[in-house]
Amino acid sequence: MKVDLCIMKNFKTIQLGHSGPFVSKLGLGCMRMSSIWGGNTPDETESIATIHEALDSGINFLNTGDFYGAGHNEMLVGKAIKGRRDDAFISVKFGAIFHNGQWLGLDLRPIAIKNFVNYSLNRLGIETIDLYQPSRMDDSVPVEDIIGTVADLIKEGKVRHIGVSEITAEQLRKANDIHPISALEIGYSLADRQIESELLPTAKELSIGVIAFANTAEGLLTGELKAPLPENDYRNHFSRFKGENLINNLEKVEVLKQVASDKGVTPAQLAIAWVNAQGEQIMPLVSMSRRSRLPENIAAMHIEFTPEEMNTLNITFAIGAIHGGTYLQR
Fold first, then answer.
1. Helix or strand or coil: residue 137?
2. What is the C-alpha separation between 191 and 253, in angstroms, rounded?
3. Taken in order 223, 56, 71, 134, is the CA torsion positive or negative?
4. Mind listing the pLDDT tens digit for each residue in 36-85?
5. In this prediction, what percent of the chain has a pLDDT beyond 90?
6. DSSP assignment of 56-117, as one string?
7. For 99-128, what is each residue's pLDDT tens digit?
8. I want to staple 238 with a disulfide (CB 3.0 to 4.6 A). Which of 162, 192, 292, 326 is the partner?
9. pTM to 2 decimals?
10. What angle do CA 251, 256, 262 make, to 5 degrees?
């Protein structure tokens, strides 16, 4: 596979693991190209065109999950990379179980993982998944069984590298002791900095790449939200977006908006840039389904901060400054 050797146009690269592959430091999250929570499916032609343009721009890290749209997302990604396999690094999450748009739980049994991977390979139309990772770990199945099963899939040639997602520092160490972990996928933003205490230092110590999603904290950091949210907004399920919590949080966002305005960029771009600036081992994973979003997100990777700007943001969004929880706090 040529992906490690390709020249990333205008992009820095990030190495996943001690001796793992180099991929673009900006990743494309494909989740929003499918319906997960029962909403409408975005235009498939536009979604595929977005993937193509991302690849053309030098973004080679594509993130999907076998439960995104009940397999729809993998089939879509498969169509997009047909004839371009060497241009793409495919990351797949597994283990989450949904029914009729409702979360039911996890299935991380070895027998289930062996079943999941074959369906994923078939839907993607590829022979090997570049990065395969449980979407979460809840202690329902021993870490040894989960990671050991994926390690067996590496021996079979069905997987190249092992990743993990949404786990604790203790789980990360345990998983890495069983088999070298290449990447940790985790929510990280100005509004969600809880991983800075233990998980992020552990990943850095172990030379594990960090794939950071939810950079705009479910839209909180875009500067476009107003209180109260519409009744049918899914974010009403989370205390962060309710009542006084939302009012407090939007006051913090006003500072982000001012810094962004002074720099001539959008709050969303600044939020992505902040994540990018947190370390060479951190990749912002940005979800989008329209080509029109690509230029602004790519431009965010070139934003630099003065010490004063970084200090202002870090103080304003210190741990605990944002009130209420989301799905990231479990």
1. coil
2. 9
3. negative
4. 766 678 899 999 999 999 999 999 999 999 999 999 999 999 999 999 99
5. 87
6. HHT--EEEEETTGGGGHHHHHHHHHHTT-GGG-EEEEEE-EEEETTEEEEE---HHHHHHHH
7. 887 889 999 999 999 999 999 999 999 999
8. 326
9. 0.93
10. 130
What does the domain layout of the chain look like in residue ranges?
3-218+267-306
Q: Which of 68, 119, 188, 234 does the annotation list as catalytic? A: 68
Token reading at 244: 């006084």
Is 132 assigned a catalytic role? no
Task: Determine how β-strand 209-213 pairs with β-strand 183-187.
Answer: parallel
Nearest-angstrom CA–CA distance, 121 and 43 = 23
> Over the Cα atoms of the chain, what is R_g?
19
- For β-strands 159-165 and 209-213, DSSP reports them as unpaired
Q: Count CA within 13 A, CB hemisphere, residue 65.
A: 26
User: Which residue in the block uniquely carries the two structure tokens 């690094």?
Assistant: 89
- Using an 8 Å Cβ cutoff, are 111 and 142 in contact? no
